[in-house]
Amino acid sequence: MSRSSLLFWIGSTLFLVATLVMTQVIGNEYPFFAFYVILQFIVLAVAWSILGGYAGYVNFGTSAFFGVGVYTAVFLFKAFGAPLAAQIAAAAAVGAFLGLALGLLTLRMQGIFFSIATIALTIIIETSVTNWRFVGGASGIQMQRPPVMAPFNSYVQMLFFVQAVLVVLAVAISRYIQGSWIGRGLQALRDDELAAECTGVPTLRLKVLACVISGSLMCAAGAPAAMYLQYADPSSAFSLNYSISALAMSLIGGTAHWAGPVIGAILLGVTQQLLTVTISSEVNVLVLGVMLVLFVVAAPEGIIGLIRRVRRHRAGGDA
């Protein structure tokens, strides 16, 4: 194991230990409600970046995968009383299948045509769920949380820790992809897909694989959301805000490195939570749009690219 990998896993372990300790020493429920949302967006941003960042295929279907994860959990809990772990695992499997289907059907398209296809996917699935009475239909469905498991004192604390585990899993997968032949192949097709095909890169296979992994993580992130809110309805579960936020967080942080979406999600997630408490939740979209425009104009490679540019400038000045 390399030194960087060792440091990553040590840091991840300390992160999980810290989140577990928080659930034991903090009595106020609000921090867990707020931090859960931030952790959820980290998973979504990292998952989006696997296809949208590494491969360069802009995906507006994040809300479709997130909503499918929500309603997979709702269906399993209502039909079988499935535990949270089974809900997340099933949502990840459904997301992988949906990603495979989406990839095979749409990834031969490029540019704006692929993006439009992912928006259409969201509309189709949301319409289907809206007319599915078993899971509440258009009026939504109330969810009754089961008894919490030890060592947690409340269900929200448990969901917070579960989402932290998903963050570590998503970042570990993204980090592995970036350093493997998969990441190098995705980067090659992002730079010039035709040239990559001519040099023997299996572009379609790599794009489908990226879509499968990305979709699986997005659905897994959505699975705990129904129990988090104790309610699910199609308009909220399939909200376009998830797609916009995941895209903006990845672009602002930087899509060329696995840490970029994490930084962007933390920055925007914390900002949105502060604005919700101090001003209004309606201001979030405005701030998101302004920050996205600023970074696209001033730092198109995101915060990670900006840091690299400063380092190169300093290195050149020292020389």
Explain how this protein is built.
With 319 residues, the protein is an all-alpha fold. It is 77% helix and 1% strand. The chain has helices at 3-25, 30-52, 62-80, 84-106, 112-130, 155-179, 181-191, 193-198, 203-222, 225-229, 234-237, 240-253, 259-278, 283-298, 302-318, and strands at residues 141-142, 231-232. A two-stranded antiparallel sheet has the order 1-2. Helix 1 (3-25) runs antiparallel to helix 6 and helix 3 packs across helix 12. The chain is globular.
Overall pLDDT level: 87
Computed CA radius of gyration, to the nearest angstrom: 20 Å
| Broad structural category | mainly alpha
Extended strand count: 2
- Overall shape: it is globular
Series of secondary-structure elements, N-terminal to C-terminal: HHHHHEHHHHHEHHHHH
Key attributes of the depicted protein:
319 residues, mainly alpha, two-stranded antiparallel ribbon, 15 helices, 2 strands, globular
Layout of strands and helices, then pairs:
Layout: H1 3-25, H2 30-52, H3 62-80, H4 84-106, H5 112-130, E1 141-142, H6 155-179, H7 181-191, H8 193-198, H9 203-222, H10 225-229, E2 231-232, H11 234-237, H12 240-253, H13 259-278, H14 283-298, H15 302-318
Antiparallel strand pairs: 1-2
